[in-house]
Amino acid sequence: MTTIEIQERDIVGENLITELVAANRILVRQGVLDAFGHVSARSAPGASTFLLSRNLAPGSVTRNDVMTHDLDGVVLDDDRPAYLERFIHAEIYRRRPDVMSVVHSHSAAVVPFSVVEAPFRPVIHMAGFLNPEGTPVFEISDFAGDGSDLLVTNGQLGSDLAGALGDGNVALMRGHGSIAVGSSLPEVVYRAVYTEVNARAQLEASVLGTPRFLSRGEAATANGSVGGQALRAWNVWRAQVAKEVGSDD
Amino acid sequence: MTTIEIQERDIVGENLITELVAANRILVRQGVLDAFGHVSARSAPGASTFLLSRNLAPGSVTRNDVMTHDLDGVVLDDDRPAYLERFIHAEIYRRRPDVMSVVHSHSAAVVPFSVVEAPFRPVIHMAGFLNPEGTPVFEISDFAGDGSDLLVTNGQLGSDLAGALGDGNVALMRGHGSIAVGSSLPEVVYRAVYTEVNARAQLEASVLGTPRFLSRGEAATANGSVGGQALRAWNVWRAQVAKEVGSDD
Amino acid sequence: MTTIEIQERDIVGENLITELVAANRILVRQGVLDAFGHVSARSAPGASTFLLSRNLAPGSVTRNDVMTHDLDGVVLDDDRPAYLERFIHAEIYRRRPDVMSVVHSHSAAVVPFSVVEAPFRPVIHMAGFLNPEGTPVFEISDFAGDGSDLLVTNGQLGSDLAGALGDGNVALMRGHGSIAVGSSLPEVVYRAVYTEVNARAQLEASVLGTPRFLSRGEAATANGSVGGQALRAWNVWRAQVAKEVGSDD
Amino acid sequence: MTTIEIQERDIVGENLITELVAANRILVRQGVLDAFGHVSARSAPGASTFLLSRNLAPGSVTRNDVMTHDLDGVVLDDDRPAYLERFIHAEIYRRRPDVMSVVHSHSAAVVPFSVVEAPFRPVIHMAGFLNPEGTPVFEISDFAGDGSDLLVTNGQLGSDLAGALGDGNVALMRGHGSIAVGSSLPEVVYRAVYTEVNARAQLEASVLGTPRFLSRGEAATANGSVGGQALRAWNVWRAQVAKEVGSDD
Q1: Minimum-distance CB partner of D60 among A1, A212, A218
Q2: Looking at the predicted structure, is the pLDDT value of residue B6 above 80?
């Protein structure tokens, strides 16, 4: 396996489409996405458009499936069906100019934290990007009433969800899953994977006793230094999907 | 991997046999079936016959192993040994004209819910097909006495089980497993997989606190809209088994 | 994948050696054995010798590694190093003429039951071979004192362990693992796999509440009818390892 | 698969570099390392230098990536970036002349024990190398204050961690992971793997009741005799990575 060493500055233009396909495949391989969930990338810094696959399982996404959406969730360059929940991405990009990439997943260990009172907090240094006071939970019934399908299928609900996320990096969606945001594809993929890892660790620690979480200072410092290692993870995961990504070109 | 986009209307006749083989392979791959369990399909809407493999582990089933059974569990077109529990399928098809496909499995996370008082309920929006008040548990000793082998090996027990299922989509079988029903192969496979996913989520949430389940309205709405996405899952899972299914033709 | 349909009567002589190799590979693949643990077969009904690999990880065993041992644990036909714990097998074969095959494993979900008070009992119909009153636990410190290495490395300890097993099919070894016995390789492999499956189910049910176990009558009946399906499992597992077993011939 | 039977005396010089690459790959395959963590080897008995990959995910490490470090963490023969936490290795080699190899990992089941009061103790005979009184936990905030990134990024913190390890074989790092040391690569790989196995077993036993741990005498004896079997595990794991290690030469 050849080692690929990508720098963030390389992930632009045509490369951005290819790396978005790779992100889909990586997240499937890491168990964050299955037949559902999605990952998007803002077209360029400051842009009001973003790239997201058509309505397709992440493990099947190729370059040819990536479509350009605007911040109202309108697809600009294609007429194939879009994801029902593209408004998650649109409204986060609208509210958060700093965000360059968004993952929405149902990853298995995170979901249980969305339906209980116990707050989801960083228990490992790899997850310093989580809020040490507790991750916000988007309670959709506060916005859509008690009989919705829990899906974020319009701009208003997307905006409500973006409001729950606030300035954070991760928010839970009750009975549904979570979102993670980042300043690049490698960063958001890293965060989505380690959100799941932290959830598993917090669950298991809770079985054994009362976990000691990262302090506010530890989370901030760890997010700075450990987060900077996201490219190391990306490079090894990227190499694992090189063959399947390449074959779609 | 070529993307296959099947529509439900395509799954009939010879295709139905092939897709039933695919369903066997998908359920093994998704961890719902192992060396045991089975999946069947009604021959056609309104038909009093159904298709089911001969007595064989699901991972070995090919087109040549599929046999036609009537609603008394009699095999009409073959003389090889049938599954001991074919009466599960026969009696559900007899009682429920709306049902076009049935899965019986021992999937790992579901079984524990069959032996405890805690009700099994939908905790994720992907499982809106589960009864929000709790999934019925078929207590076989009420019908077969306290010394049975827990197997549904005749029409009477099959009918008793179908009665426990009632109008629902899933029923648990104490100390044994579960059944899921649907209006098509893709739907029932989706339900069998997400019954397992919901069980894992409910178990883990129970470790952390008292889970908030889907409300009655949420379950109904989610079942309508999320359930409609079953084909998206089917299409990606179908592609994963394309090579092994194809090679049996 | 070609379906192989082996009958128990076929597993004798040279075939027995091949099938013992297959059993090693199957148990590794099913997660029962890893780099440690072993499976043996009595040479023939009534024989005072048994077949067991030389001291080698189960995943590496080939026909050439199988050696004949007598009931004192002496290797009769080879001078390569034997397993330290061959006395487990020797003494069970001596005490139990009905036993034709023995598995000793450290399988992950079973070990926790060996170190707690909670009895290990059949919770699923596939595990009717387990004692419904609770599986015996071999407490080695009762025999070897409080400073042993927990290994069964001589005939006396093997005999003590065989005594703990008594007339049962499975015994736990505190802080170590378990043994399963059967009347054939397919049966003992089935039992070793479903001992692990039952342990996982009992553990998870215990998280949710107080499990209802199989009654004495249910266990006995299930063991008779479900146990008879062991060959169905064997045939599908056997096919999965056909290539690696074949290549060693 | 050809059986490779390595003796410890063979792992020196050029072979040591190759075997260090193999150790990286084995630990990834066994689930101990993922994109992070590292394994090192002292250059030779009594040497004041050690071998460790450049800053790279373990699954990507080849012979060409291995660099020689001195006990101050200075790389002697290369100018590519080193691991931030190379001081873990350096200071343990300085303090413990008996140690020939060190693993630092974030393995999943061990981390929860680092953040709770419950001591981590040997519950299986394969883990007799763990301290029966409880594994020390390195609480980094005692040394680096309450706002660190939890990383061991300088010689002082490395020395503090080595002090927490003392004469033991394993130490936990709060909210981070663990270290294992040994007298050879096969031994330390074995210990890192079975530290994880023991953690899973202790966690699950804790769900069921109060585990009985190995006594002091049992741990000591088991460490002597079972630990001597580490090469059996190494040889099977080594064979599994033979192709990928070989292809890097």
Answers
A1: A1
A2: no
